[in-house]
Amino acid sequence: MTENNTQHAPVRAAAPTTLTAEEIKAQLTESGIPEHLHPYFPRGLGELIPAMGIKFQELTAERTVATMPVAGNTQPIGLLHGGANVVLAETLGSLSAGVHGGENLVAVGVDINATHVRPAVSGVVTATCTAVKLGRTLCIHSIDIVDERGRTTCTARITNMLIPRPTA
Q1: Domains of the chain (ranges plus CATH)?
Q2: Residue positions annotated with a catalytic role
Q3: Which GO terms fall under molecular function for this chain's record (predicted)?
């Protein structure tokens, strides 16, 4: 029992998903990652990006564009969940920074902030990520998310640190 008399099931970490090389290639291709960038993602994209329905149209260190459906990513009253906006923003900023870092470095987020400007209730949102600073250690990106009518729904800014790619 917790302090407010609710019971929670014990938290168990999910077993890591191991994909075959063919499954990784299919996941990257289906998500719109250009083939020349596949070596940057030796373990694929993880589980969250495909689960959220994020699809890339463009992916460079300087500019990344991706879409995400509102359906399946809503909060209880039917609006796009603010956390989904942040997932989309962090995904674009981190992958852009990772491309800047090259195959031997990975980007890890050290700061993110988001301002939700208006709700998205249906259709697809499009995020455009633009580099503010691409350094040897830190990368800063600005992300604007718009609805299908081109209206801003969220603006975000992320700072990533580039670190050596883990070997295991």
Answers
A1: 52-164 (3.10.129.10)
A2: 90
A3: 1,4-dihydroxy-2-naphthoyl-CoA thioesterase activity
Query: How far from 114 is each of 86, 93, 128, 155, CA to CA, in Å?
Result: 7, 12, 14, 6
Instruction: Report pTM.
Output: 0.88
What is the sign of the dihedral through the CA atoms of 147, 34, 25 and 156? negative
Instruction: Output the average pLDDT for the chain.
Output: 92
**Best CA proximity match to 48, nearest among 86, 5, 1:** 86
Q: Which amino acid is at 15?
A: A
Residues 25-46 have pLDDT tens digits of 999 999 999 999 999 888 899 9
Is there a contact between 19 and 43 (Cβ–Cβ < 8 Å)? Answer: yes
